[in-house]
Write a structure and sequence with these properties.
Shape of chain A: globular
Oligomer: heterodimer
CATH architecture of chain A: Roll
Radius of gyration of chain B: 30 Å
Mean pLDDT of chain B: 84
Number of strands of chain A: 5
Number of domains of chain B: 4
Radius of gyration of chain A: 11 Å
Structural class of chain A: mainly beta
Structural class of chain B: alpha/beta
Number of strands of chain B: 12
Low-confidence stretches of chain A: none
Helix content of chain B: 55-70%
Number of helices of chain B: 32
Strand content of chain B: 5-15%
Mean pLDDT of chain A: 90
CATH class of chain A: Mainly Beta
Largest sheet of chain B: 7 strands, mixed
């Protein structure tokens, strides 16, 4: 599923960060395959999206977040 | 012992790098700029206890050596080419996300630099459940590591020379002793397909050559034999990108292995507070409301709060001017001093209150971490126009005055977005346009109500504010299509932690901006003011001997002043441009007023009152009557018709008539190119719209 489909507070694991279309900066900031991502909230006007990626709070434009595939972590 | 060392300070954005820089170097900083680009080169000095002198260079914040913007490109070039001959590098990292910060660190280690790691923000470690084993970290990295808190200084022994910052200074010599670890050369180069590089070049320069190879489009004209060879290697962009991604994954693996036994963080505790605040400040209703309130206070403060010291400066300079005129011997030199130099200086100082207030706000918002939230809230709206979310602050400030607003664009990291913001801001309706609007509107728009409650004059004024804003956005859009950048725009923004502001940092920011303005743009403003004074007070024979031509000897001094203005060089210029402004509906008198407006737009009003010989009081009502009755001597037509008024309003809305703004643009972009471009596109656009308006309405 796409990262943008997460609901607030849902957690997921990144699985397609080695996409050549994604900017390198994203990986440098810690968005690598297997990292845990939690969706925090969307901006009032729809984009960007606000996540906790690893230990870092990062806001991503919709076009970037849509390119990241994730696997949902089931709530314990 | 008098050793000199040159060190660079480098780190991710939001790591408190600038705070540390301020702590280490105090107020002794030099701001220059890198040749050809608008990135500032900031350096400062400090001394170690053993007498070693350190020159510290504060490099722009970046996540790695692979640049995403012009600012980050500076870091790549400085580090890889080392034109500055750096002896070593201090890497600043944020204790809250050490992992991410260490990508840059390991890259620098691979380049063979002596490095030390300063882990900042250690004061909140306990609260966030963070534990670090410094000795093991030092051992596994092979570099000195120190915990610091650039925020706290007093009370932790800094005064007695035992504080964290002092410890950092003491540790500097150690970075040259330890054999720093390398990472890149251990990666399986065959698997990375890097044999083609490792075969050709000596192992010690491996990572440097890898950077030269992968970022070769950023190194255009460097004189380096290796680079010439590197450029001949086959370059397959998608494949290279894959390799770069692999490199990062490998670095993260190494970093994870190192941090596994040396670093612990309680994620929930670490991010809890900031996230809670964000739930309110980024809320679709409360967040926008708070944002509006903050922006409104900024706007109000630079608009009305600043007017108190501005009036004070204005009246004091007027008094000083009058005093000097009485007490100094009458003559050219006195006039040059009072009307030329002094009015130029007061024209510079008058901006100081607004710049100070705006930058106190900007520095506070930046320090506290709110600036990133402004970007988050506003990006969606600004992005279609090629602007950053941060452009909101300069654009809004532009409604008070373009000068501080343009300086405020400094906070925008992306240089293309910063440039577009700078070029679009002068279209915003600044307060100097207001007196001009007021008098012309009162002249041509009836004081009537529409539908019984909408005041027509107010509606027109609102319309003028609106078209200014619309033109700012429109020109931003056009510029974003025209200005090329090799960096694609995408939105990735770290949301820093909320922090209490460090007052010293705010103070340093404000002082820096004021210095930059007074000694940069200020010089140009004074020079222009002297030129304008000269043009208005010198002229042909008729100017210097009005009594020979002025038939009615009993004429009032004001009338003589009018006659003199008409025959000054400025008056001659007004007459010269008359053919050009006639299609807009203006005569040479308005032409003079247009020219004098270059000192400040509101001068339009006082110039007209001089030309129309209104009595000494600048009462608008009187001037209005004069303007109403003013007619063309040949045709007998009224000068200020509806068509002329509209044409003037549009001209003042769009034309670039403010040399303080031009001087500031020059100062901020470090080139005359952009002020010249702004002057011609704004004035050209103003001319065309005023022309169309007059020709259709007359």
């Amino acid at each position: 599923m796409k990262l943008t489909t997460l609901k607030p507070n849902q957690k997921a694991l990144a699985k397609s960060c080695e996409n050549s279309k994604l900017p390198l900066k994203l990986m440098e900031m810690g968005c690598v395959d297997g990292v845990e991502i939690r969706f925090i909230k969307r901006a009032p006007f729809g984009s960007p999206y606000y996540y906790l990626i690893g230990d870092t709070r990062i806001a991503l434009g919709k076009e970037i977040a849509e390119m990241i595939e994730v696997r949902l972590i089931e709530d314990e | 012992m008098n050793r000199k060392l040159k060190l660079a300070l480098i780190g991710n954005p939001n790591t408190g790098k600038t705070s540390l820089f301020n702590k280490l170097t105090g107020l002794h900083k030099k701001v220059g700029n890198y040749p050809g680009i608008t990135v500032n080169r900031i350096s400062g000095n400090f001394k170690l206890d053993d007498g070693t002198e350190i020159e510290l260079i504060d490099l722009p914040g970046t996540y790695s050596l692979h640049p995403n913007s012009k600012d980050e490109e500076v870091v790549l070039k400085e580090i890889v080419l080392n034109n500055e001959k750096l002896d070593g590098i201090i890497v600043v990292a944020d204790v809250n996300n050490l992992k991410k910060n260490m990508i840059l660190l390991t890259e620098l280690q691979d380049l063979g630099y002596p490095v030390m790691l300063a882990v900042n923000m250690c004061d909140e470690m306990k609260k966030k459940g963070i534990e670090i084993d410094i000795p093991s970290l030092e051992k596994s990295l092979g570099i000195p590591v120190i915990l610091i808190s650039a925020k706290k200084a007093k009370g932790d022994g800094e005064r007695r020379g035992k504080g964290k910052i002092h410890q950092l200074k003491e540790l500097i010599p150690a970075m040259f002793n330890k054999p720093s670890r390398t990472f890149f050369d251990k990666y399986n180069l065959t698997a990375l397909n890097l044999d083609f590089i490792s075969d050709k070049f000596p192992k010690k320069d491996l990572y440097k050559n890898w950077l030269l190879f992968t970022e070769q489009d950023k190194f255009n004209n460097i004189d380096n034999a290796d680079f010439q060879l590197i450029k001949e290697l086959p370059f397959d962009k998608p494949a290279i990108k894959k390799l770069l991604q692999k490199e990062i994954i490998k670095r993260y693996k190494d970093i994870n292995a190192i941090l596994k036994n040396t670093y612990k963080i309680d994620k929930v505790k670490a991010t809890g507070i900031t996230e809670k605040i964000d739930r309110i400040l980024l809320h679709r209703f409360w967040g926008l409301l708070i944002f509006t309130v903050i922006m409104f206070s900024v706007f109000q403060s630079i608009f009305s709060l600043a007017s108190i010291p501005m009036d004070w400066i204005d009246s004091n300079f007027t008094q000083l001017n009058a005093y000097l005129k009485i007490h100094l011997p009458n003559g050219q030199l006195t006039n040059l001093l009072t009307d030329g130099i002094l009015s130029g200086v007061s024209g510079v100082l008058i901006f100081v209150p607004q710049i100070t207030i705006l930058f106190i706000f900007i520095a506070l918002l930046e320090e506290m971490g709110y600036m990133s939230r402004i970007v988050f809230l506003m990006d969606k709206i600004m992005q279609p126009f090629g602007l950053s979310g941060k452009s909101v602050v300069p654009l809004l400030s532009g409604t008070a005055c373009a000068v501080p607003a343009i300086m405020g664009a400094r906070t925008i990291e992306n240089s293309k977005e910063r440039l577009i913001t700078i070029l679009a801001t002068p279209f915003m309706t600044c307060s100097a346009r207001l007196p001009v609007y007021t008098i012309i509107i009162s002249l041509i728009i009836p004081d009537e109500k529409m539908f019984g409650f909408i005041n027509l004059q107010g509606l027109v004024l609102f319309g003028l504010y609106f078209i200014g804003f619309a033109m700012a956005l429109f020109s931003a859009f056009i510029l974003s299509q025209l200005i090329k950048s090799k960096y694609k725009r995408y939105f990735i923004l770290e949301m820093p932690e909320y922090k209490l502001p460090i007052i010293k940092n705010v103070y340093i920011t404000v002082v820096d901006k004021l210095k930059a303005f007074v000694f940069g743009a200020g010089k140009i403003i004074v020079a222009f003011s002297i030129i304008l004074w000269f043009l208005a007070t010198h002229g042909s024979y008729k100017f210097h001997h009005p009594e020979e031509f002025y038939i009615q000897k009993e004429e009032s001094p004001k009338a003589i002043a009018t006659y003199k203005l008409e025959h000054s060089y400025l008056g001659q210029m007004g007459k010269t441009i008359e053919p050009a402004i006639k299609p807009l509906g203006y005569d040479w008198k308005i032409g003079i007023a247009l020219l004098t407006s270059f000192a400040a737009r509101e001068v339009f009003v006082s110039t007209l009152s001089t030309i129309y010989s209104v009595g000494d009081n600048n009462d608008n009502q009187l001037l209005k009557e004069k303007m109403k009755n003013e007619q063309n001597l040949v045709t007998g037509d009224k000068t200020f018709t509806f068509a002329v008024g509209i044409s003037l309003l549009l001209f003042y809305a769009f034309a670039m008539q403010c040399f303080s703004t031009l001087a500031t643009i020059k100062n901020e972009t470090k080139t005359w190119k952009w002020p010249i471009v702004v002057f011609f596109y704004m004035t050209g656009f103003a001319y065309i719209t005023a022309f169309i308006a007059y020709q259709t309405l007359k």
